[in-house]
Amino acid sequence: MTALLEISHVAKRFNGVVALDGVSARVGRATITAVIGPNGSGKTSLLNVVTGFYEADRGSVRFNGTEIAGRPPHWIARLGLARTFQHIRLFEGFSVFDNVHVAAERRGTSHARRRAEQALEVVGLAAVGRQQADALPYGHKRRLEIARALATEPEILILDEPAAGMNATEKIELGELLFTIRDLGKTILLVEHDMDLVMGISDYVIALNFGCTLAAGAPAAVRQDPQVIEAYLGRPEAADA
Ligand SMILES: Nc1ncnc2c1ncn2[C@@H]1O[C@H](COP(=O)(O)OP(=O)(O)OP(=O)(O)O)[C@@H](O)[C@H]1O
């Protein structure tokens, strides 16, 4: 079966700095796929190319068979890709519900309220819809971001470091939420530094280094790959990430 997302030979540089050096990867439908790698290895750049925030210098990105490389973010989003960012981007002064409702309306105003309610239900925030977003605990703000993405009814959810700043309990709950979302038939592509989370939830792991794919496969295989261990997992600073 063809992959939902097919990334082929994608390269991107910034004034001589190579961010991506010919990355190829496939993301299967209704899977959780994680992109790992040391700082600066190109993980966020890859998400930015896929979602149209960066234009690749070369290479192709196909979503459901449609070429999306070089298209603007809103065009790509309309096809069914939704993303969250490394840093929380909420409308802090809005209620929890309104944050999601605004996102739901991007898909069209018809049934937007229902889409917003359903998204809040999935992430477990339906009971606090009237609260102001900035009053939420940190882990719930991160969930709210996921709800905003879900409210556009994407086929694929793209998450940039969703566990950043979370405590151990929040990370476990996030893992459970991502399983729930995958089991609803959605595809999840995430960049994440927390190796326990990545290895615990992913169906497939792609390891980058210096903008190249070092290894890709099942979590257990990638974790044992000597090149991955040397480039990333074996480094002392990665151990506390
Ligand atoms: N907009 C940009 N302008 C200039 N250089 C950039 C830009 N975006 C990324 N880069 C460079 O591309 C390389 C890859 O960066 P990227 O943010 O994709 O790595 P990363 O793996 O996501 O890192 P981290 O784990 O620290 O978030 C780095 O050298 C970075 O400085």
From TrEMBL:
In this protein, which residues make up the domain named ABC transporter?
A: 5-235
SMART domains recorded: AAA
GO terms (molecular function) for this protein are: ATP binding; ATP hydrolysis activity; L-isoleucine transmembrane transporter activity; L-phenylalanine transmembrane transporter activity; L-valine transmembrane transporter activity
Is rRNA processing found in the keyword set?
no
Give any Pfam family that matches.
Answer: BCA_ABC_TP_C
What GO terms describe the biological role, i.e. biological process, of this protein? Answer: D-alanine transmembrane transport; L-alanine transport; L-isoleucine import across plasma membrane; L-valine import across plasma membrane
- Write out the coiled-coil annotation as residue ranges: none
The molecule here is called ABC transporter ATP-binding protein
UniProt lineage: Bacteria, Pseudomonadati, Pseudomonadota, Alphaproteobacteria, Hyphomicrobiales
